[in-house]
Amino acid sequence: xxxxxxxxxxxxxxxxxxxxxxxxxxxxxxxxxxxxxxxxxxxxxxxxxxxxxxxxxxxxxxxxxxxxxxxxxxxxxxxxxxxxxxxxxxxxxxxxxxxxxxxxxxxxxxxxxxxxxxxxxxxxxxxxxxxxxxxxxxxxxxxxxxxxxxxxxxxxxxxxxxxxxxxxxxxxxxxxxxxxxxxxxxxxxxxxxxxxxxxxxxxxxxxxxxxxxxxxxxxxxxxxxxxxxxxxxxxxxxxxxxxxxxxxxxxxxxx
Length: 255
What we know:
It contains nine helices and seven strands; from the N terminus they run βαβαβαβαβααβαααβ. By secondary structure, it is of the alpha/beta class. A seven-stranded parallel β-sheet has the order 3-2-1-4-5-6-7, with helices on both faces. Helix 1 crosses helix 9 (229-241) and helix 3 packs parallel to helix 4 (113-139). It is globular and about 45 Å long. The two termini are 25 Å apart. The relative contact order is 0.16.
């Protein structure tokens, strides 16, 4: 972003972080990484068992974490998430809007209208509402950092799930549009754009264990390029530490 010349290492130690979709995969890896750096982490997910497991991993390593059930498509649930974070830890410094889904089976154009609406709301409205509430909370603290999860699919085409591509492109545009908050409120908004990641997300596109039939060939074709979730977590932490970045989209792919 023009005019954002500073570059200092921002300390994560002592900060309060919210991570959505933290019950598994990228969200869990990022929550654990933030806690390992000394942040108090609010683990948010619609899955209480997954959320509790993430909290257990963090507290088992002497970290600080609490679980808050959150449906990112619900304004009331988003408001409650931030209220619970402030009640537990006194404020919010870091927000990672990570929750997201794919349409799965049946694929486009046979996915039903309810699934299309759900995918759109989780992947876009959830990010936008989470960012809005984060900005309100961070203004009280004099600044903060927001990171959103986009995807390389946002710059490509998924013929079997064009909703996913479209929603991730929307996250990119939204993130870039939020860049001025860095100068205005000392709140930096950036996004990570992962390639294919080895998480339970793949199985959830199908029967829960096996990926959707349209996704499996791509997984097999790009098996050597599938990233561990920890690689995305490290990119998120890099954005948090580097105060010169705002409105940026960072592709995370194998070296």
